[in-house]
């Protein structure tokens, strides 16, 4: 219907032009000998509706000018027809794009942050029709501008996605670099000579050997404890004590000396009234000594080479007889070490520190530096063959006073504990 109205508007001027033609009689003095009879000669000239006909000259002889005018009108009609067809094609394309735009605009409007509903009451999201496009070019321009904005938004989202992916990749790379730096520092600490990092080194070694799950050892005595530096607060305490006095003993343990000028105090037993009831100590420039009731003898042992050694000492109250073994071999013996003195009950067994009072007042200069394991104590003297079998791992005798077990030893002050099998 709108196309017909447009055609009508185009044809009306043409029809009015035809109706406004001026009919002019031919002059008899024109020089023509032709007799027109009852049919007078007319010369027709198209005159606009609002023009004065007297301003236009009449046509000359012949119908050339009229024929040209008719051809011109026919050409105009063809051009008008082509223009109408072009307009109809344009309207069809705009209708298709307008419908697609209305659909996308409705979807986009439903996702806005203002509650998800477009405001149709204000006409901003109004569906565009071909008539609207024809009658309102500004609306068509707005529609094209909106489509352009949507295309820019899609491009921006794509760029944002690419930027996010790039940022995520950079973040992962930074984390990888940080982990590599931590691993490098960890390796330096493990290989460094600083004694102050020994505690951390032992913790790392324990973690690496046991895994993050820290599963228990196959046997309760397959572990070692480590004292990485001299302190007055790192020690191990044996839960057991002597329930009655004893008149003989055998003390055996595996030990490995750490860095430092002396071994320190691997083992001490303090009884009520006597802080040095039973002590194994090496401090200052002194050799390793065995103290019974604060009386000392020098032991001919050499364990400061940084290697694991099996050490045993025996003592009997009868004549104060003592013996010292290293790696299953007797290195020395003697008598008169606190003879006829029984070891008092009710005391405290401490590993790694020398006690100045019952269970405490440690001196850092006398503390043990190194590692130890398999501490056992018997209330009698073991034979030389039993001690050799213990050192060669052909026997697994357990002490009746102290038996090495993770349930029997309390660790304090950061003493490290990790698996260890002295026989492998």
UniProtKB/TrEMBL annotation:
It comes from the Eukaryota. Residues 137-189 form a coiled coil. Residues 221-423 form the Pentraxin (PTX) domain. Keywords: Calcium, Coiled coil, Disulfide bond, Glycoprotein, Metal-binding, Signal. One of its GO terms (molecular function) is metal ion binding. Residues 1-28 form the signal peptide. InterPro entries: ConA-like_dom_sf, Neuronal_Pentraxin_Related, Pentaxin_CS, PTX_dom. SUPFAM superfamilies: Concanavalin A-like lectins/glucanases. Its cofactor is Ca(2+). CDD domains: PTX. It holds the Pfam family Pentaxin. Residues 98-137 are annotated as: Disordered. PROSITE patterns: PTX_1 (PS00289), PTX_2 (PS51828). This is Neuronal pentraxin-1-like. It comes from Seriola dumerili.
């Amino acid at each position: 219907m709108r196309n017909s109205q447009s055609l009508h508007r185009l044809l009306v001027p043409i029809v009015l032009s035809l109706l406004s033609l001026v009919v002019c009689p031919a002059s008899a003095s024109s020089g023509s000998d032709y007799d027109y009879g009852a049919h007078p000669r007319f010369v027709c000239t198209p005159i606009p509706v609002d023009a004065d006909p007297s301003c236009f000259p009449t046509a000359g002889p012949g119908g050339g000018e009229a024929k040209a005018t008719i051809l011109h009108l026919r050409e105009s009609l063809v051009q008008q027809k082509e223009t109408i067809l072009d307009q109809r094609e344009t309207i069809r394309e705009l209708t298709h794009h307008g419908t697609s735009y209305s659909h996308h605009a409705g979807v986009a409007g439903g996702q806005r942050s203002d509650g998800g509903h477009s405001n149709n009451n204000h006409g901003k999201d109004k569906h565009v029709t071909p008539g609207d496009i024809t009658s309102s070019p500004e609306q068509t321009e707005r529609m094209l501008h909106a489509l352009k904005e949507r295309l820019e938004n899609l491009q921006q989202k794509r760029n944002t996605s690419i930027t996010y992916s790039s940022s995520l990749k950079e973040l992962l790379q930074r984390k990888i670099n940080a982990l590599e730096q931590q691993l490098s520092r960890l390796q330096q600490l493990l290989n460094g000579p600083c004694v102050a990092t020994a505690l951390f080194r032992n913790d790392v070694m324990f973690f690496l050997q046991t895994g993050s799950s820290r599963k228990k050892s196959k046997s309760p005595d397959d572990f070692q404890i480590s004292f990485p530096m001299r302190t007055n607060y790192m020690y191990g305490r044996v839960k057991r004590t002597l329930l009655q006095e004893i008149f003989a003993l055998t003390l055996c343990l595996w030990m490995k000396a750490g860095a430092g000028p002396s071994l320190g105090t691997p083992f001490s037993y303090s009884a009520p009234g006597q802080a040095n009831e039973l002590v194994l100590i090496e401090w200052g420039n002194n050799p390793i000594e065995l103290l019974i009731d604060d009386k000392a003898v020098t032991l001919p042992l050499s364990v400061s080479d940084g290697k694991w050694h099996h050490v045993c000492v025996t003592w009997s109250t009868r004549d104060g007889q003592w013996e010292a073994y290293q790696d299953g071999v007797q290195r020395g013996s003697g008598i008169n070490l606190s003879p006829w003195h029984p070891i008092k009950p009710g005391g405290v067994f401490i590993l790694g520190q020398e006690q100045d009072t019952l269970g405490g007042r440690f001196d850092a200069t006398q503390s043990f530096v190194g590692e130890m394991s398999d501490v056992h104590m018997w209330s009698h003297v073991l034979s030389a063959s039993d001690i050799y079998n213990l050192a060669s791992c052909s026997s697994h005798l357990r002490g009746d006073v102290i038996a090495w077990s993770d349930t029997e030893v309390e660790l304090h002050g950061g003493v490290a504990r990790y698996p260890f099998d002295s026989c492998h």
